């Protein structure tokens, strides 16, 4: 049977599709397909492995007749509905569509077209996210609804839309993000990180995106592939960047390769359901048992998220090539790697090298939600901690400074308590190859909002924000933090509430100054002032850090380079405190004045500095 017309339209719609009916639908798990969806001429690695899915394709002989495309090897697997093809693409190959013909004696040919694209030399992509950036983290379903027509998609496993329930979809989408890019740019944001946007066609809680059922399709309830690419383009027009959230470790139970596996060990299989232990220590514990290590990495994250067997070459290629595809197609600039510690370490090291070989400027940081500085550092490249392998992971989401800044404002000052925890965490930066690449944060979609952690004390809250935008590393702000959104994580899940004003008919629009109350505007102005200052002053991006041992609850640190010196003073106690400036002569040198960045006035610094309780000040020394 001839399949060419169907596949030609399928490829066109998924790669270039816009608002057509198909692009607004879920793909059926039994639809024939080829992954990657398309490829490019002129890649550094000329070889691509196609995974072909079609009824009885595994018994057939494939043929390709296209100049510059060589079918190097054919791999047959257990499931006769799959075939893996290794293609070598010459750099001079002409871009365009060609047919892959699958023949078998006595049967009609199966003809499946495949598209090679020309790389766009003008397209911005893989720029990398560095300590010059300020990241804004968005859960798309909860940020803004720019296109109500995609709120409910026919044929999806979940069609409920209930904004009054935190576990159903609310209707936020990519268009809603695009509509508010100027709001983010005005605030000083330079990079946007979205929680996963791939199709998440699960029966419940499909809004968060961490249980993908497709690798090459944006969830139709969020938009289309073309709209995601438009988001990247709109960001780049504003000198901003796009971070894609990746999940290597698992997929959703409704993923099409789980519904019909290519071979028996496509997943990490167990005789009976086995959950991961979440015990990262066993991965580097010199006394750990092999069974504990296996449970940690091969156990399933939750029953609805099957654990992928990353030790097979077919799985490795399937995952890695999909990530390269999104860089090349959409213009992604950086990756955040979910549940990093649960992956196969050897594969992740290979993944990092493959990505960096293709895109030397590409950056990626892994989620290492662990307790302990060495626990975290062991996952990063070039760590000074003795490792039997190099992960090649450039950076992590810095949970150790996150834990420490929480303790700074929730514990009394002590030898190992309060702000001394923060001092000690940063004092241990020697364990990293480059700690300035780590992503620092006060909260995210998985933890309680910082405002609630500090008891809704605005002075503590603003002090935390001050630290976030002046310490080393890449600062990340969770959506709504700039308008003092609050609440705790599970069991109520209210850290994922909607951004007020993102939906037509919202009573208040907090994207606008007139929609915010005085406290919300105070916090917004605080964030904006520091973010803009940071954006225009390299000293807070790439400058060196010098910190002084906290005394009496006062923490002082400096960011400095050859052009500027900035002094940050934090009073982490409830009472007014004064500090003598002569203790800091090493960095203050002959400076006697400072420009107060937040108060926008000059201050005398001759003898001492006085701060109210739970406040912080940022002084550009002059």
UniProtKB/TrEMBL annotation:
GO molecular function annotation: hydrolase activity, acting on glycosyl bonds
UniProt keyword list: Glycosidase, Hydrolase, Signal
SMART domains: Aamy
Signal peptide (from-to): 1-23
Pfam families found in the cross-reference section: Alpha-amylase, Cyc-maltodext_C, Cyc-maltodext_N
InterPro entries hit by this protein: Cyc-maltodext_N, Cyclo-malto-dextrinase_C, GH, GH13_cat_dom, Glyco_hydro_b, Ig-like_fold, Ig_E-set
Any Gene Ontology biological process: carbohydrate metabolic process
Glycosyl hydrolase family 13 catalytic domain segment(s): 137-534
Descriptive protein name: Glycosidase
Classification lineage: Bacteria, Pseudomonadati, Bacteroidota, Sphingobacteriia, Sphingobacteriales
């Amino acid at each position: 049977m001839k399949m060419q017309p169907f596949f030609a339209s399928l490829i066109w719609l998924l790669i270039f599709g816009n608002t057509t009916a198909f692009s607004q639908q879920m793909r059926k798990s039994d639809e024939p397909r080829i992954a990657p969806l398309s490829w490019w001429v002129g890649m550094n690695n000329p070889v691509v492995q196609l995974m072909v899915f079609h009824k009885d394709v595994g018994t057939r002989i494939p043929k390709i007749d296209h100049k510059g495309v060589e079918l190097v090897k054919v791999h047959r697997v257990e499931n006769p509905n799959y075939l893996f093809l290794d293609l070598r693409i010459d750099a001079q190959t002409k871009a365009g569509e060609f047919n892959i013909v699958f023949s078998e004696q006595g049967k009609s040919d199966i003809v499946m077209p495949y598209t090679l694209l020309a790389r766009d030399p003008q397209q911005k992509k893989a720029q990398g996210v560095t300590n010059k950036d300020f990241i804004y983290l968005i859960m798309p379903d909860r940020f803004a609804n720019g296109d109500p027509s995609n709120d409910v998609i026919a044929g999806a496993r979940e069609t409920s839309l209930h904004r009054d329930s935190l576990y159903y979809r609310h209707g936020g989408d990519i268009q809603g993000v695009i509509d508010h890019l100027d709001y983010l740019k005005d605030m000083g944001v330079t990079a946007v990180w979205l929680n996963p946007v791939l199709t998440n066609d699960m029966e419940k809680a499909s809004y968060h995106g961490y249980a993908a059922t497709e690798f090459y399709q944006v969830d139709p309830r969020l938009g289309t592939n073309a709209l995601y690419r438009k988001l990247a383009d709109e960001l780049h027009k504003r000198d901003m960047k796009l971070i894609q959230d990746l999940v290597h470790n698992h997929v959703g139970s409704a993923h099409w390769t789980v519904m019909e596996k290519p071979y028996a060990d496509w997943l990490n299989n167990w005789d009976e359901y086995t959950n991961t232990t979440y015990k990262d220590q066993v991965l580097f514990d010199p006394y750990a048992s092999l069974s504990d290590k296996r449970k940690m990495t091969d156990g399933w994250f939750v029953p609805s998220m099957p654990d992928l067997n990353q030790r097979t070459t077919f799985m490795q290629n399937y995952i890695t090539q999909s990530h390269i595809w999104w860089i090349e197609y959409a213009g992604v600039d950086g990756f955040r790697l979910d549940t990093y510690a649960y992956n196969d370490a050897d594969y992740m090291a290979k993944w990092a090298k493959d990505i960096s070989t293709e895109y030397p400027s590409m950056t990626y940081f892994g989620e290492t939600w662990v307790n302990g500085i060495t626990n975290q550092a062991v996952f990063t490249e070039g760590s000074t901690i003795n490792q039997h392998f190099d992960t090649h992971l450039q950076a992590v989401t810095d949970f150790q400074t996150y834990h420490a800044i929480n303790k700074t404002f929730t514990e009394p000052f002590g030898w190992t308590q309060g702000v001394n925890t923060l001092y000690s965490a940063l004092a241990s930066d020697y364990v990293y190859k480059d700690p300035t690449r780590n992503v620092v944060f006060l909260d995210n979609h998985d933890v309680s909002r910082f405002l609630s952690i500090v008891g809704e004390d605005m002075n503590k809250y603003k002090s935390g924000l001050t630290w976030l935008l002046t310490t080393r590393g890449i600062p990340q702000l969770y959506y709504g933090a700039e308008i003092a959104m609050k609440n705790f994580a599970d069991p109520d899940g209210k850290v994922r509430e909607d951004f007020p004003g993102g939906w037509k008919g919202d009573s208040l629009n907090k994207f606008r100054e007139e929609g915010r109350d005085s406290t919300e505007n105070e916090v917004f102005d605080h964030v904006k002032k520091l973010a803009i200052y940071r954006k225009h002053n390299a000293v807070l991006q790439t400058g060196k850090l010098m910190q002084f041992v906290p005394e009496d609850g006062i923490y002082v640190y400096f960011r400095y380079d050859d052009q500027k010196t900035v002094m940050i003073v934090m009073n982490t106690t409830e009472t007014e405190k004064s500090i003598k400036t002569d203790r800091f002569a090493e960095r203050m040198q002959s400076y006697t004045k400072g420009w107060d960045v937040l108060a926008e006035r000059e201050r005398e610094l001759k003898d001492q500095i006085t701060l109210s309780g739970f406040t912080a000040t940022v002084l550009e020394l002059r």
